[in-house]
TrEMBL record:
Belongs to the sigma-70 factor family. ECF subfamily. It comes from Phytoactinopolyspora mesophila. One of its GO terms (biological process) is DNA-templated transcription initiation. Keywords: Sigma factor, Transcription, Transcription regulation. This is RNA polymerase sigma-70 factor. The lineage of its organism: Bacteria, Bacillati, Actinomycetota, Actinomycetes, Jiangellales. Residues 105-156 form the RNA polymerase sigma factor 70 region 4 type domain. Residues 7-69 form the RNA polymerase sigma-70 region domain. PANTHER family: ECF RNA POLYMERASE SIGMA FACTOR SIGJ (PTHR30173:SF36), SIGMA 19 FACTOR (PTHR30173). SUPFAM superfamilies: NTF2-like (SSF54427), Sigma2 domain of RNA polymerase sigma factors (SSF88946), Sigma3 and sigma4 domains of RNA polymerase sigma factors (SSF88659). Interacts transiently with the RNA polymerase catalytic core formed by RpoA, RpoB, RpoC and RpoZ (2 alpha, 1 beta, 1 beta' and 1 omega subunit) to form the RNA polymerase holoenzyme that can initiate transcription. GO terms for molecular function: DNA binding; sigma factor activity.
Length: 307
C-alpha cells in the first residue's frame, strides 16, 4: 500500500478526531490537510501509520484549539459548533460513543474542558485509544493522561446529555415540529415543546440571530413562528436532515442557497433544546450560502404589505 493509500484509508478517522476536538468542520479539514503534508514530507515511515497520523492530527488540533479559544471569547453572541451532516468514520464496536460525542450538546460540554483534557477524552472515550498511544499523541506521561481522562470524564458525566433512544420516533416528532414551524402554527408548535425548552442561535454578528437564549414553551413558540412565518412566500424550503446525529433541517432560499441550519434535542417525547446556526462562515461546507440579511428584509416587507 502506498503512503497516499494509507493516508486516505485513515482520513475519515483523522477528520472525526479533529472535528470533536475543534467543533469546526473547516478547521478539522485544515488539520487533516496539514497532517497529510507532514506525513508526505516525512523522511521515514512510522512503525504504525495509524498511531503516527493520529498523534499528528491531535497535536495540530490542540494548537488550533488553543488559538481558537481566544477568538471564541470575543465571539459575538452564542457560539455553536459548525453543523456536521455526516460523520465519515464508522466503527460498529464504538457506534454509541461516536454518535453521542458528535451531538451539539456533547461538543458544547467538551468546550468546558482544557484542550489537553478534550484531546485525551476524545482519544480515550470516543475512539478507544490506549494510554500509551495517547501519551505519545499529547506529549505527556501515561500517568498524567490517566489523570486528565478522569477529570474530563467527571466533567462530561456531570452534564452528559440524554436523548430519545428511538431514532424513528425522534425523526417523526422533529418532522411535526418543522411542519408547524413552516405553517406558523403556534399552538401546534407549543404542544411539541417541553415546558422549559430553550432556543439559541449563532449568527456571529454576521447574520440575523436570536437576541439571547429564549426559554419556555410559550416564548419559544411565539418567537419562532414570528421569525419563520410565511417561509413559503419567501421561497424558503426546509430539508429534513440529521444534524450532528440529532434531528434537524437545512433552510434554503429560492436559489437553493443555504440560509440556516436547525437541530433539536428530544427527550420524553418533547423538544428540549433548539439550536440554530445562521453564521454564514459556518455553513459553506454544506453548500453555497445565501444572504440571510436580504431574506430578513424581504420578510419585513412582506409583513408590512400584508398588514
Amino acid at each position: 500500500m502506498t503512503r497516499t493509500e494509507e493516508f486516505e484509508e485513515l482520513r475519515p478517522m483523522l477528520f472525526s478526531i479533529a472535528y470533536r476536538i475543534l467543533g469546526s468542520v473547516s478547521e478539522a479539514e485544515d488539520a487533516v490537510q496539514e497532517t497529510w503534508l507532514r506525513f508526505e514530507t516525512s523522511s521515514t515511515l512510522p512503525t504504525s501509520t495509524k498511531a503516527f497520523l493520529s498523534a499528528v492530527v491531535t497535536r495540530i488540533s490542540i494548537d488550533v484549539l488553543r488559538s481558537a479559544r481566544f477568538q471564541r471569547e470575543k465571539y459575538v453572541g452564542q457560539w455553536l459548533p459548525e453543523p456536521l451532516l455526516d460523520d465519515p468514520y464508522e466503527d460498529p464496536e464504538r457506534s454509541a460513543e461516536l454518535a453521542d460525542s458528535v451531538s451539539m450538546a456533547a461538543l458544547l460540554l467538551l468546550e468546558r474542558l482544557s484542550p489537553l483534557e478534550r484531546a485525551v477524552f476524545v482519544l480515550r472515550e470516543v475512539f478507544g485509544f490506549g494510554f500509551a498511544e495517547i501519551a505519545s499523541a499529547v506529549d505527556r506521561s501515561e500517568a498524567a493522561c490517566r489523570q486528565l481522562a478522569v477529570r474530563a470524564r467527571r466533567h462530561m458525566d456531570e452534564g452528559r446529555p440524554r436523548f430519545e433512544a428511538d431514532r424513528r420516533e425522534r425523526m417523526e416528532l422533529a418532522a411535526r415540529f418543522f411542519d408547524a414551524l413552516r405553517e406558523g402554527d403556534v399552538d401546534g408548535l407549543r404542544q411539541l415543546l417541553a415546558a422549559d425548552v430553550q432556543a439559541v442561535g449563532d449568527g456571529g454578528g454576521k447574520a440575523p440571530q436570536l437576541p439571547k437564549s429564549i426559554v419556555g414553551a410559550d416564548n419559544v413558540a411565539r418567537v419562532l413562528t414570528s421569525g419563520f412565518a410565511r417561509l413559503d412566500e419567501l421561497g424558503v424550503t426546509l430539508e429534513l436532515r440529521e444534524m450532528n446525529g440529532q434531528p434537524g433541517a437545512i433552510f434554503r432560499d429560492r436559489e437553493n442557497k443555504v440560509i440556516n441550519t436547525m437541530s433539536v434535542d428530544i427527550l420524553d417525547g418533547r423538544i428540549q433544546m433548539i439550536r440554530s446556526v445562521i453564521n454564514p462562515d459556518k455553513l459553506g461546507h454544506i453548500g453555497p450560502v445565501g444572504d440571510a440579511w436580504a431574506l430578513a428584509r424581504q420578510a419585513r416587507q412582506t409583513r408590512r404589505s400584508t398588514g
